Amino acid sequence: MRHHRDWSDSSSGERQRGGELHKARYKRGWSGNSSWNTSRAHSTSSRYHLGHVDIIAVKKDCSVNHQIIEVRELLQTFLQFKYLLYSRRQIMDPDSFKDYAKEMAEYITNYLENIRDRKVLPTVEPGYMKPLLPSEAPQTPEQWQDIMADIERVIMPGVTHWHSPKFHAYFPTAQSYPSILADMLSGAIACIGFTWIASPACTELEVIVLDWLGKMLNLPKEFLACSGGKGGGVIQGTASEATLVALLGAKAKKIQQVKEQHPDWTENEIISKLVAYCSCQAHSSVERAGLLGGVKFRQLEVDEKYKLRGDTFAEAIRKDREQGFIPFYAVATLGTTVNCAFDRLDEMGIVANREDIWLHVDAAYAGSSFICPEFRYLMKGIELADSFNFNPHKWMLVNFDCSAMWLKDPTYVINAFNVDPLYLKHDMQGSAPDYRHWQIPLGRRFRSLKLWFVLRLYGVENLQKFIRSHVAQAHEFEALVLSDPRFEIVGEVLMGLVCFRLKGSNELNETLLKRINGAGNIHLVPSKIKDTYFLRLAICSRFSESKDIQYSWKEIKLRANEILDEQSLSK
Ligand SMILES: Cc1ncc(COP(=O)(O)O)c(C=O)c1O
Fold it and tell me: At what positions is N6-(pyridoxal phosphate)lysine found (predicted)?
């Protein structure tokens, strides 16, 4: 690894150019403030070097004064030329941008197409980067090539390669060439589409592609803008934001309802009685939404397949009502992070509708699979939900961030967030969504371009093939695990995630994981349910194939053999 650059040696391009000018000045004997040294002005000819430019001052057969004036003019022209050249070099001009964009595309494709050859986990220690970079930003522009060189020198040693087929941690994060290109365009348009008028295309494309996507998932028409009802979709940054936005909408709705029944109750009194529900396996962002929304959240027990069932939900509501609480919101998880279990949305939906509770569906990872009809049985009951969210940025080849959310009736969300300063008002209000009211921040990028490019350049069929290939690879890995009697599977394999463990203690499995990640050839994270520790293998990369599954299984078996051999030797 190369080390800290010595900034005193003026290694930046501008410092070099500065050095050349200084040398030229010295040669010409110019003190730098027009006090031309006449004794040196008699020199026969001089040559200034500045990049590709040579300026030759030729000795003229005339008086010294005339010569001084002429040389001054020449110098002025030279300085003007130098300034022009200098400023062109500082700011990336269009031709340079085109060249550099090609160079970057070359770098990106090389990186991605050869990602398998890189070590998936970096070996750096915390603080590795500090000695590699100067402590202050450069005063003058640097060269593009220096930055490009620093990608391998400074950045890549500290990158965890999420798109390597050897990366099996968490859930996938999506990535594809069409999406990267759309991100480029979004970066170029660089609008902030908080209202329709702030950039009509930004809002209108979002409405349309979310209808496309909703139809691909076969969402009930009440969620779609094209149905002509109140419903519609919006792109949030993350599933966490979607859960919070839905909670705040539900909270606003319930407060309004209760106020109508009990006009004497204060808002604080009502809020203190509000209670929300989710499974004990729900993502931490659900609990966090409760904290941010200032309401109680009950985490309910699951059945033997790790699903939250309708009767458990109904019983919790009954108990809370008895104690004077006001149930107002519930989250059903389709594809839990822990082990990709699916709550019984159909059963929860019946209870939620009967009890007038807003039901939000968090399908952050698994939601992408619903573009394939064969997986839709897992979203049975979707017509009973009030809001639904999944992350195309997890498993549908759209780069982060793109979290698709649909609401049957966004009115309460819109009202909950509606602050209307004069500078954000416009004449077209009400004719199209002003997405600022559907989300927490004001600003929003042109994210729908990513979806639009991916949907058009892949087509639904190829996206379905992609999902199916990951599920097939998960089953291939499951079969390998089951073929070895020392291992067991935890839970059901339904999507691209396999949970497994060595039969034996939690400590044994903790050692196995440490050994696997320590070797750094593949990367996995653990999980735990009811004191049972296990390993999670997620199929993450769009480059992943059967040979990668075989490689990962070989690596896991090798580490398991090492541990079990050591154990039997120590006995
Ligand atoms: C089920 C579930 N919900 C929510 C989240 C949070 O997603 P985000 O990072 O988009 O907020 C995750 C992340 O993996 C998840 O698996």
Answer: 394
